[in-house]
Design goal:
single chain; four-stranded antiparallel beta sheet; 6 helices; binds zinc ion
Length: about 325
Amino acid sequence: MTDNPINTDVDFGKDGVQHGHLKLPHSSEQAAWGAVMTPLTVVRNGNGPTALLTGANHGDEYEGPIALLNLAATLQQQNITGRVIIVPMMNHPAFLAGRRTSPLDGGNMNRLFPGDPTGSPTQKLADYFQRTLLPMADLVVDIHAGGKTLDFVPFVCAHVLADKEQQARCVAAMQAFNAPYHLMIKELDAVGMYDTAAEALGKTFVTTELGGGGSASATTAAIAKRGVANLLMHAGILAGTPELNPSRRLEMTDPRGFITSAHRGLLELCVDLGAAVRTGEVIAQVYDTDRSGPEPQVYRAAIDGVLAGRHFPGLIRPGDTLAVVAVPAD
Ligand code: ZN
């Protein structure tokens, strides 16, 4: 296969703290011989496990960049055993634009794996992760939140996998990360996801949805920071014992839990995130925005559970995920 055009000024095999970039040549109106510069930090101290930590896979999700820029600024060689590769803003062009997807090519990083070294800029970045960064890693952590269009109860999650030994490793890592909710998930469509790429390579993989709405709170940023430190301790890379707080176990494996809007209009959520819901209970109403008088369209829970996710903006369109009901597994 064609070599990836990205090069970097860090040496992944060298001990110490290195701050550098992944440099992807990109000729544009603004810079004829320009480059997409994705910041990364590598901290290595001898042989040991490698953790690959990423944020802003989607550019409008902020807990990951906050926790990982903080870690990159503070992590010291003498405090670790092994290696930590930190890419706080995986889709940097999207992050700079405050968008989910890249303004360069519309690329949604988390739907483009395994990537393509001859493709668009986002495809080339995905290929670099697929063939260069992921193979170096033992533990892979990708910190997401809901972005501008979704909001979630803060959860860390692992996927239901065919390989139960691998699933057990991922669940143990999820428990070490420790968020208010621990969730087992089956994706509606796992094709093209970074998650799927990491798991197919046999890696221990955890991801999160730590809130949303296109910003971070003090609470969700703290969950991300503590979670990353906990995981590095769990992996034996950082000294210390993970700080574990009480959490609730949820499962998002029933497709009936995903409620999609069939209407355009003004959204009224009738229950808040984290609330218990019963089958048949009204979760939301959607009002016609072109006339007063009509009754709103009513959306009901199809299963018993907990409201774990919701559409964030006040206006909703057909096809938008309106709400997600997860099932308690306690
Ligand atoms: Zn995301």
